[in-house]
Amino acid sequence: MVDAAERLAAAILLSAIAPLLLALALAIYLRSGRAPWIAHRRVGQRGSELWVLKLRTMWDKRRSFAGLGSLFTIEYVDDETGPGLKGPCDCRVTSALARFCRRHSLDELPQLV
């Protein structure tokens, strides 16, 4: 019963934030020219590894479009150093849109999926 309630709540949340996620993904794709979705490997409960889906907020200033198909693909990033602390000013965040997403943690919204 609890599992069904969780799935229902997740479906309702996803349908509520889907327009925002798609708008952000399109804006990031147009600004960066790369796939807006990235996945990082994280350590979960009891030490099991899992992939965490996020919106891209760091990209090279040089725009290189990878084609329209990249709008719907996920780039997997296997970072051995693990996540760092989110500082107030990161020089790798080169766009006002990316700074806005990071400041308001909008880049973390895909984790609700």
SSE succession: HEEEH
**Number of beta strands:** 3
Helix content: 25-40%
Shape: globular
Instruction: Supply Rg.
Output: 15 Å
Report the sheet-strand fraction.
15-25%
Q: What is the overall pLDDT average? A: 79
Name the poorly predicted regions: none
Q: Please report the number of helical segments.
A: 2
Task: Write out the strand line-up for the largest beta sheet, numbering strands in chain order.
Answer: 2-1-3
Number of domains: 1
- Sheet/helix structural class: alpha+beta
Largest sheet: 3 strands, mixed
Task: Give the N-to-C terminal Cα separation.
Answer: 20 Å
Produce a short descriptive summary:
By secondary structure, the chain is α+β, with helices and mostly antiparallel strands. It has helices at 2-32, 96-103; strands at 37-43, 49-55, 74-77.
Characterise this structure.
The protein has 113 residues and is an alpha+beta fold. The protein has one domain. 35% of the residues lie in helices and 16% in strands. It has helices at residues 2-32, 96-103, and strands at residues 37-43, 49-55, 74-77. Strands 2-1-3 form a 3-stranded mixed sheet. Strand 1 (37-43) and strand 2 form a beta hairpin. The protein is globular, with a radius of gyration of 15 Å. The two termini are 20 Å apart. The mean pLDDT is 79.
Q: How do the strands and helices of this protein lay out in sequence?
A:
Blueprint lengths: L1 H31 L4 E7 L5 E7 L18 E4 L18 H8 L10
Parallel strand pairs: 1-3
Antiparallel strand pairs: 1-2
What would the keywords be for this entry?
single chain; about 110 residues; alpha+beta; 3-stranded mixed β-sheet
